[in-house]
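User: Here's a structure from my thesis project, written as structure tokens. My advisor, Dr. K., wants to see whether a designed sequence matches the one we expressed. Can you design one independently, without my sequence as a hint?
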């Protein structure tokens, strides 16, 4: 049974999410404040974490950093009333994989959860045994490790998925719509700049400290990974 941590200080919301997830076959732990959430997150292994932002003692941003320090791969979904772009960007920068604004439809939350867990399960079951190499960039698809010039690069789950997808289509220009469909796997508001933000995250980690740039943009068409 897949185990999910829900950190939410609104008791009715937390209990409703817990009930809905349990009815769909998940094992759920709930923390009603950031201190308890931190304790659970650091002492247990979860398949996915759902975080509110405005929490007593430790807010969702702080918890996301703690979780990322412990496990750089577990999917983190922010569930919050804060819908501003700055709030979203800060969450993504700290390692959140998804962001759902209250009030929300539980069916959408469940769909997003299943996307992340399905991908994780598929990776575990069908994990490839080979590596992708582009110039001095190496992606180990079994271990989900990325190195460049022999230096290990820490990526969030979503950053890794985006990089891997581009690497699997080396040299091919991939549109924003295709990235949204294949990497996010759900209906995605392409009017936002989240994909651009993630590409910037990757560029800072993959290209910034190297003379040869591997991540490229074809204006008006999309992105591609190439040694050019």
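Assistant: Designed independently from the structure alone:
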């Amino acid at each position: 049974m897949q185990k999910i941590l829900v950190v939410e200080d609104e008791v009715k919301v937390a209990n409703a999410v817990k009930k809905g997830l349990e009815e769909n076959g998940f094992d759920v732990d709930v923390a009603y404040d950031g201190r308890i959430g931190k304790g659970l997150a650091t002492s247990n292994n979860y398949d996915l974490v759902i975080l509110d932002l405005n929490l007593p003692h430790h807010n969702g941003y702080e918890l996301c950093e703690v979780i990322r320090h412990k496990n750089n791969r577990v999917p983190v979904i922010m569930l919050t009333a804060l819908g501003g772009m700055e709030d979203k960007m800060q969450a993504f920068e700290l390692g959140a994989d998804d962001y759902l604004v209250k009030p929300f439809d539980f069916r959408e939350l469940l769909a997003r959860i299943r996307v992340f867990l399905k991908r994780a399960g598929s990776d575990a079951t069908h994990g490839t045994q080979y590596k992708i190499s582009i110039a001095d960039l190496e992606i180990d698809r079994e271990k989900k490790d990325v190195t460049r010039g022999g230096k290990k690069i820490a990526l969030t789950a979503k950053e890794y998925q985006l990089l891997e997808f581009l690497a699997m289509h080396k040299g091919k220009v991939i549109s924003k719509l295709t990235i949204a469909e294949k990497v996010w796997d759900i209906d995605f508001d392409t009017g936002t700049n989240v994909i651009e933000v993630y590409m910037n995250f990757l560029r800072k980690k993959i290209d910034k400290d190297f003379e040869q740039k591997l991540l490229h943009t074809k204006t008006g068409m999309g992105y591609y990974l190439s040694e050019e």
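When you compare it with your expressed construct, this may help: The helical segments are 11-23, 34-43, 60-70, 85-93, 106-126, 157-168, 176-184, 194-206.
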